[in-house]
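Molecular record:
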Amino acid sequence: MSQSHSCLVLIAGAGPAGLTLACDLARRGISFRIVDKADRLFIGSRGKGLQPRTLEVFHDLDVIDDIIAAGAPFPGFRCYAGEQVVWDRSLAQMIGIREPVATPGVPYPSAWIIPQWRTDEVLHNRLIRLGRNVELSTELVAFEQDADGVTATLVRDGVQERVRARYLVGTDGGRSFVRKELGVGFEGETFETERTIIGDVRVDGPLDHDHCHLLTRAGGISSPERFSLWGLPGTEFFQLVANVSSDDVPALTLDAMQAMLEARSGRSDIRLHDLRWISLYRVNVRMAERFRVGRVFLAGDAAHVHSSAGGQGLNASVQDAYNLGWKLGAVLAGAPVELLDTYEAERMPVAADLLGITTRWHRQDFGGPPAGAEVGSGHKMFQLSLNYRGSPLAWDDRAAPSGLRAGDRAPDAPCSGVGDVPTRLFDVFRGPHFTLLAFGARSHDVATEINNSRHRDFVRVYQVVLPSRGSESACLIDSEGFIHRAYEIDPSTDATKLVLVRPDGYIGLITGEENSATARLMRYLEMVAPIGASGDGVELNASR
């Protein structure tokens, strides 16, 4: 017997993308359901590396303290020839960059290692604190859409349920039912001759928990010659990684893994036990032809899959959800429906670039040129250089912008707030709102105009001032000049400059001519801010 229920958003899949989206919608007060056909959250360590940009997202979602507590700085690599240590190298040395250090603009400079199951657990716990939960053992088996919404069929314990939602988001992995049901192509290639075994196991022997141990017979680290064991912080487990050819795949058993370790390392003093989880991974490099069909969206592995080289997959999934969440929230609150078009416009180019670079990194791992030659500054791997320049939502009105531009990640900076209390921009940005940083003599007037407009609940306005000029409650005191430098504002001029930061931490607008700054801001807000229940919106590229 079927039942009927409704919600605004139905999320199919409770991995990193689905959980991130659920947390974002929950803090916005959006009615949603998140379902997964599995009877528990993922139990493996698979996507164990969080990049700095993802840590910034988790700062905004208010889970960063739990993530930091449950993980550790990304470990160094220790290569062995038999029992002999051949070399120790940091991640920075492995990819050919300088050792990253925290700066005022980048508080989380390095990758963080944490088992994927723990990341999922942290996000799920945050969701519970927000008063929501994942519906496990609940499978999406059918859906159809019309002009007003999506009608989905869920099955739990053999009982069917009909759900009516305004939007459906498929975050259901590389074998996505949602993508297949939409008939969306998944173009790309499969590396048929290569396989990777990944598992979680306890280890007895002379290996510490603070390294990635590259076990080989002769010290060569090309993939077919090594057996890797990564210490997983906060646990007694290691992640084992071994690349194999497709015609020589061993049984996925503890005994077979022990035999492979001994064959590749020539060692018998390292004993594996308690194999908790194991998986055979075939490298697919594929991207969906569309990330959106009507009222149905694809995110995470449902939209793109690629090599694990560079540790980008889970991070890209989080970024998809983070990009989509605020847009769904705004449209459901009455913003122009055209805003949703920008999800595909912004995320597809990022995914395409990601597929290309991770494939190159993968081939380097299989004996190609040095990784550092490709990675360069490391910002691409760390996702700090990820940007949406050229997006319909990136307006840069300056005559000749250079350096920081609209569409770029908004930098952090320490500053002071009311009562000279220390704060930082990332804490100012935290939450489901836009943030306006107003510089110059007319910043007070701009703040007053916004606070008296219908946008006052959607945009938080802060006048950024030097210590000698700060007195109002909505001021950020830039005592050390970090904000002015980060946003390339000349503190010696009184010219009014406005920088609008999106809820996902990217710069939407940087104004140019002082006389038109407020008008341009209002025009931009017409694209993204709630205007009423109709959802009839503004053409997004009308002013470009």
Residues 291 and 348 are 7 Å apart (CA to CA). Residues 366-377, 533-544 have pLDDT under 50 and may be disordered. The chain has three domains: 3-72+111-190+286-382, 75-109+192-282, 395-528.
